[in-house]
Specification:
Layout: H1 3-10, E1 24-26, E2 29-31, H2 34-48, E3 52-65, E4 68-81, E5 88-91, H3 98-111, E6 116-117
Parallel strand pairs: 5-6
Antiparallel strand pairs: 1-2, 3-4, 4-5
Length: 118
């Protein structure tokens, strides 16, 4: 069991979010917050306008060092802009937890990706 599995097991009481966000369903997808659902809608519009080539939701990036998985980061969105080689990672942030701040630095160190907070 890694750190992420342990934290998921701890969780919060059923029906209540730790930070007060409300889950939202759009296009059959469940988003952790209204903000995340709005970002999804914006990305769909940008894709229809031809500015965004593609995007994926809930992409997981593992942090493995010397063959040992330390933890992982689940990005809200991975965005591939038209005409750019490297995708961007977007996170619909409402609250920057200490754990998130560490994982943001790990993303830069392991993958060379600076997370865009929207």
């Amino acid at each position: 069991m890694d750190v992420d599995d342990y934290l998921r097991q701890q969780g919060t009481p059923k029906g209540r979010s730790k930070y007060g966000n409300k889950r939202v369903v759009v296009d059959g997808r469940t988003f952790d917050s209204k903000k995340e659902a709005k970002v999804y809608g914006k990305l769909k519009l940008l894709q229809m306008a031809g500015e965004v080539e593609s995007f994926m939701c809930q992409v997981t990036y593992p942090f493995v060092f010397n063959g040992v998985k330390i933890c992982s980061y689940r990005a809200d969105f991975e965005v591939k802009w038209k005409g750019k080689d490297k995708p961007e990672v977007w996170d619909a942030k409402g609250f920057r937890t200490p754990e998130y701040k560490i994982k943001k630095n790990l993303m830069l160190a392991f993958y060379g990706i600076d997370i865009v907070e929207v």
